[in-house]
Amino acid sequence: MRLFIPNEYHKTIHDIDLLKLYDLGKRLILTDLDNTLVGYDIFLPTAEIIEFKKNAEKIGFKLIIISNNRENRVKKFADELGVKYVHKARKPLKRNYRKISSEYKNNEVVMIGDQILTDIIGGNRMNFYTILVDVVNYNNEKFGTKINRFIERKILRKYKIKGEK
Ligand SMILES: [Mg+2]
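Output (structure tokens, whole complex):
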């Protein structure tokens, strides 16, 4: 499998069929924060995100935020939501994925994110089930992320990832 191809693509996290994932044997959901759950300028979980978390836990998932952003941003959001988190995760490197998912088999883990070059490649390298979602809001993205977006657009076009769904 190509490392940058996600298992699923959806417009938002709310379009993901969590019951199906549970039936597939998935038990841990790792999710990116910025532009996956909310935009960069939203500091606390929205009602929709709180609902998503409650629903995931009701089904039987554990939810953990894995973010490359700095601690004060990630901690504030995760604490308010009531989930564990990893900050400065250095996705797509494997180290922190491995650490945070150590109680699970790799095929029980789902990785959700908006960036192919960090979230999806990292998740695929771990043999996690990867789900790409659309960016919540392009405002305030860092320079490095903008460069990643440029490469990402080429990959999305070349492999028609979004067109296939
Ligand atoms: Mg992101």
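DSSP finds six helices and six strands in the chain.
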